[in-house]
Structure formats: C-alpha cells, structure tokens
Specification:
Helix content is 8%, strand content 48%. The chain has 4 helices and 41 strands. The strands form 6 sheets. The protein has a 19-stranded antiparallel beta sheet that branches. Strands 15-24-17-18-19-20 form a 6-stranded antiparallel beta sheet, with no helix packed on it. β28 (375-381) and β29 (384-396) form a beta hairpin. It starts with a helix and ends with a strand.
Length: 547
C-alpha cells in the first residue's frame, strides 16, 4: 500500500510539472534552456501563427527574449534547437543582444552581430555554412575602435596547420582541440601563418596540463621570423618560461620560474599582450612578467611540445588593436601588478626608499634617477603591495639624495610615517642602527621586509645633518636607498651606493633637501615608541624600479 501511494505521488508531481512547463502554445524554460524546476522559470516560448516561427519572452517582465525561426522546436530542451533565417536574442531591457542568420539546415550562414548592453555593436562575424569566414571576425571597443580577431577553435581541419601523422609524432584536431603526441626525444612545433600587421596585438590559448610530464614544457612561439629568430612563452606543471631568441641565441626571458598561477592539472589560459616592444605575459589572468622584444616580421605563430610529451590546446586567438589602443591597459598592468618583475629587460636599476609622508613623498638615493627614466614604486597599502609611477620632485646632487612623489595615487592614501625626523641639529649615536629594506623573494613571488642591521664603528655626533659616519659591521644585505633608524625609531638617512663595502658605509640626511625645494610635506613630529615603530614601519618601506 505504501509503495503504491508513493508511486501515485511521484506520478502526480511529474504530471503537474509537465503541465506547468506546457500550457497550450506556451513552453517554459530556465535560464539554460531546460525545463524549469520550481521557481527557476526564466523565459517562455510562444508558438506564432507562422509555421516554424517563434517568440520568447522574459518570464518576469514579458519583454522580448527571442524572435526567429526554429527547425523542429524541442518541447523540453530549448538549448538543443536548430535555428533558421534571421534570429534575434534580446537583453532584459529590450535592446538586442545578438542577431544571427542561419541557413535552411540550421548552420550559421551570413552576418552575425553581437551587441553590448548599451546598444553598441560588440562583435561582427561572417559565417559560411557554419564556419567563420577565413577565421576572422571583428570586435568593437566602447569607443568604437575596431579589433581584428583571428581565432581557430579547432572544430575542423582546414589545412592551415602543418599537422603530422607518423610514428614519432601525431598532431591533429581531436574533439575541439589540437592534440600533439610527441614520442620522439626532440621538441616538436607546428605553425600557422597569421600575418600580424599591427604593433599592438594579443595572442591567447588554453592548455591542459593534465597530460604533461612533470619537467616537460609546452606553449606558444610568436613574433616568429625563422627558426633562429622568435619569441616563446612556455609552461610546465609548476613553472613558466619566456625567451627572446635572436640569431639562435636566447637573450632575455625567464628560465623556469615557479608560479602559483598555474593549475597543476587542468586547463590553463595563456595570454601574450604586445605593444611595440613591450610584451606582457599572463597565466590565468595573472600578470607574471614584462620584457622587451625586438620588432620582427610577424608572419607565423606556433605551438610547441617538448620531446616525449603530450599536449592539448583549446582555441588560439590573435587580436590586433589600433595603434596605442592598449597603452592604458599596459600602463595599468605596470601599476597594479603585485609582482616583482626581476627579469624585466630594460630594468636599469632597483633600490629601496622610505615613504616620508602619507601624501606619497619618498626619500631615496639619486644616482639611478638622474636621466628621466620611468620610475615605478611598489608600496604597501593595508598589508597589500600596490605599484605606482613616481616623479622626481627634488634632488641634492652634492649628497646624491632624491625626493620622489607618487604621481598616480588613484585615490589611495598611504600610511602615515611610523617614525619621527630628527628634532635637533645634533645627535649623538652610540647604539646599533636598525636598517630596513623591502625585497621580492624570486622563489615565492612574495614581498618581505628585512632588517639588515649594522653597528657604529665608534660613538658619532651628527651635526647639522651634513656629516657622514661609518659603521663597523656592514649589513648582511646592502640595499641602496634603504632607510636607517636609531633603535628608538628616529630616521637618520639612507644607505648610499657604498653600502656593503667592507670599509663601512655612509648615511646622509635629507632635511636640507626639504628646505631647499620648499615642499609642503606633512612632516611627522610625534615620536613613536619602539613597539609601535617595529609594528608599523613596514608600511613605509618601498621598493623602487627604474626602467
């Protein structure tokens, strides 16, 4: 009896569900085009008086969701339909979302247009019997600029890739991807001619690391001129590799840097962004490196697989932008990258500094900043490292000291100094000095703060802030521009380029520089106690890169 009653209730529930989804000429669906469950109804489809023509509406607003022809409309799986003629989908506010033209067999054939939510054309594609014409389509930015896109989704083989089928190597299209099985001991590369006419472009692909051997690499060759002149971007399960090869010699790049951005097993997105000679490398949308690359005749891109390895590539896309279109993108990548790009080709100098004001003023060493190079400052904000551009606003050539100012704080407020400046014109020093610097651990890609220490050679008197003095034991790690404090948290000065020499090191003060430049800086007056100083000083230490 209980079993029959249970079956009755199941039958009743299924019947009610079907009646809810099917009401005369109306069929209800959830957001993914399946029959809805309970309150999941997202839109409904209505049969029109014209055979094969349908209209769909948003369930909550009754505004248009879809209009167009459907070949044998599915009663319970709208997502499986094949379309015919001109079909249009709409946003919830009634503006068109996309419009696609289909042939009589249900394949896209003709112009397909996608729109942004503000009504602008976002993408335009020409299909020929289900295939994108010449694998090219156009995207449009919010400002109306055209982006030319070449994309291979590996759904069919049109002979553009130099694939191989032999005992040592098997390369071909498998289930929507390019699969390369390399049984030989040598590396294997396949190429496709994709002329890149713009100096501003991006290359993107997805790679599945599930089948990759631990120490083997696979990735992209680009900026390709010949086998002796090209650039590359490779990944293994835990590391990434970049190189610029000129005349057969690898000149710049990263030779196996560990990164947590990689997914050990599964799909990983690789992206290369180029503007003129600047190249940015991303894995899963995380910026890993910036290098400079030479200008070459860019006629081909390639896929690379190490020996005795298997690779699966899903989609390869090349986007060409109008000149300088990505300038702001690349600039913002500089600013917001939390990474220390130690392999940056063109990195002219690196040094430390001390933030002396919450307004973004920085005291540091001058020498590397003299020639109007770009200055990038990595600073701590709420225990997170952010990157900014800075300008040289004051300098004392005689004592080789400089004053910088963050030029694009973008609304950020920097931490107030956790130290005081010297209050008197004389200071007797008899205690050890506390010297801090900020560095980047190349193995963990994390910033850390180091106390590098030092002991006065003899008691010293610092008079009028002009005298230099020596330290008996140079710091373990010297850092130009690193700030030097007393044990009580009073800033004395910075290390100069002689820091770390066995004969000792010099420290200079900057009070005269502030007076000379007549800068209105919120100078801290209140002395922090030692405990507060040790806790807060990290927020004032900065890392400076000159490019």
């Amino acid at each position: 009896m209980t079993s029959r009653l249970f079956q009755y209730f199941i039958t009743l529930i299924l019947g009610l569900s079907f009646c809810r989804a099917q009401t005369g000429n109306i069929t209800y669906f959830d957001e993914k085009g399946h029959l809805p469950v309970k309150t999941d109804t997202f839109y409904y489809r209505v049969n029109s008086d014209t055979a094969g023509y349908y209209r769909s509406y948003y369930y909550k607003t009754n505004k248009a969701y879809f209009t167009g022809g459907i070949l044998s409309a599915k009663p319970d799986e709208d997502v499986l339909n094949k379309y015919t003629g001109v079909c249009t989908w709409y946003y919830a506010d009634g503006l068109p979302k996309k419009q696609i033209q289909y042939d009589e067999t249900g394949l896209p054939d003709g112009i397909a247009v996608e729109y942004s939510k503000n009504g602008r054309i976002a993408k335009k594609t020409v299909f020929v019997h289900g295939k994108i014409q010449n694998k090219h389509y156009e995207e449009y930015t919010e400002t109306g600029d055209t982006v030319e896109v070449w994309e291979d989704d590996f759904l069919y083989d049109d002979g553009q890739w130099a694939i191989a089928k032999k005992d040592s190597v098997n390369a071909g299209i498998r289930a929507g991807g390019m699969q390369i099985i390399n049984r030989s001991a040598r590396t294997y590369q396949i190429f496709c001619k994709v002329p890149i006419d713009s100096g501003t472009y991006s290359i993107e692909t997805n790679i599945n690391l599930e089948y990759v051997q631990n120490n083997q690499k696979e990735g992209i060759l680009f900026n390709y001129q010949d086998s002796l002149n090209y650039c590359s971007f490779m990944i293994s399960r835990t590391r990434f590799y970049t190189s610029v090869v000129t005349n057969g010699h690898a000149e710049f790049g990263a030779n196996g840097i560990k990164t947590a951005a990689l997914k050990y097993a599964g799909w990983n997105n690789m992206k290369i962004l180029v503007q003129d000679s600047i190249c940015l490398f991303y894995i899963n949308r995380e910026l890993l490196q910036i290098i400079r690359i030479p200008k070459m005749n860019k006629h081909s891109i390639g896929l690379h697989v190490d020996g005795r390895n298997m690779a699966m590539f899903e989609n390869v896309a090349v986007k060409q932008y109008s000149p300088n279109k990505l300038q702001e993108t690349i600039r913002m990548a500089y600013l917001h990258s939390h990474l220390y790009m130690s392999t940056l080709y063109g990195l002219r100098a690196q040094q430390n500094g001390i933030m002396i004001s919450k307004d973004g003023y920085i005291f540091t060493y001058l020498e590397a900043l003299k020639n109007n190079f770009k200055i990038i400052v990595h600073a701590s904000i709420n225990d997170s490292i952010h990157s900014f551009f800075a300008d040289l606003v004051g300098k004392d050539i005689l004592h080789n000291i400089a004053l910088l100012k963050i030029s694009n704080a973008n609304g950020y407020t920097f931490a107030a100094p956790a130290f005081s400046y010297l209050k008197a014109d004389k200071l007797a020093l008899e205690s050890p000095l506390t010297i801090y610097q900020m560095e980047k651990d190349e193995h963990t890609n994390r910033y850390f703060y180091d106390t590098i220490g030092g002991i006065l050679k003899s008691p010293a008197c610092f008079e009028n802030f002009k005298t230099t003095f020596d330290i008996a034991a140079p710091p373990k790690k010297a850092a130009v521009g690193a700030p030097v404090f007393t044990n009580d948290g009073e800033l004395i000065g910075i290390l100069d380029e002689d820091a770390g020499a066995t004969s000792g090191m010099k420290i200079r003060f900057f009070k005269e520089l502030l007076l000379k430049e007549s800068l209105k800086i919120d100078i801290p007056r209140e002395q922090k106690n030692p405990e507060e100083f040790r806790k807060l000083i990290k927020s004032n230490i900065v890392l400076i890169q000159v490019i």
